[in-house]
């Protein structure tokens, strides 16, 4: 992988999985945004992944839809118990409120979790494990064929 995403995109991927907003098909997946207003398409051919989400399309790193698909394909670690903590989070609203400061958005969500400090440390350790696994993943990420996600 040429360019890594902000680590906070892993939390967004957890939300997509916990909310069951991903429909995986043979060579592509459709991922609904956290606000429900957009549909992103993630496609793959061998070890090449493409998506029309903003992070992948404009920044060249795997956006949360790509990360979520890789987790569901078992190419990245996925702990469903940890993912369940992020169900129902409207990342679209948070990222807008914090002007795309993903670390502030993630910190707000982590602060609001109803779990112990030890559990929060376990979540952060698992996110770091996923991120480290991402560094070792031998895939190519490129823009999807369309920069306009479908309205949900």
Describe the secondary structure blueprint for this structure.
Blueprint: H1 9-18, E1 22-24, E2 28-32, E3 38-45, E4 48-51, H2 54-59, H3 64-72, H4 80-83, H5 91-97, H6 102-112, H7 117-136, E5 140-143, E6 150-151
Parallel strand pairs: 4-5
Antiparallel strand pairs: 1-2, 2-3, 3-4, 3-6
Helix pairs in contact: 1-3
Rg, please?
Answer: 14 Å
Distance between the termini: 30 Å
Task: Characterize the main sheet.
Answer: 6 strands, mixed
Detail the poorly predicted runs.
none
Quick recap of the structure?
The chain has 152 residues and is α+β, with helices and mostly antiparallel strands.
Descriptors:
152 residues, alpha+beta, 6-stranded mixed sheet, 7 helices, 44% helix, globular
Descriptive notes:
- The structure is a single chain.
- This protein is an alpha+beta fold and 152 residues long.
- It has one domain.
- The longest helix is centred in the C-terminal third of the chain and has 20 residues.
């Amino acid at each position: 992988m040429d360019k890594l995403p902000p680590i906070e995109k892993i939390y967004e991927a957890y939300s997509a999985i916990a909310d069951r907003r991903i429909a995986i098909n043979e060579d592509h997946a459709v991922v609904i945004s956290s606000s429900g207003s957009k549909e992103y398409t993630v496609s793959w051919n061998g070890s090449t992944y493409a998506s029309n989400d903003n992070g992948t399309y404009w920044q060249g790193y795997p956006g949360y839809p790509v990360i979520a698909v890789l987790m569901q394909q078992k190419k990245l670690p996925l702990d469903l118990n940890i993912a369940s903590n992020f169900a129902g989070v409207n990342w679209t609203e948070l990222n807008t409120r914090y002007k795309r400061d993903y670390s502030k958005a993630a910190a707000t969500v982590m602060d609001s979790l109803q779990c112990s400090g030890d559990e929060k440390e376990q979540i952060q350790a698992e996110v770091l494990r996923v991120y480290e696994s991402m560094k070792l993943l031998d895939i190519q990420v490129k823009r999807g064929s369309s920069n306009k996600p479908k309205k949900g």
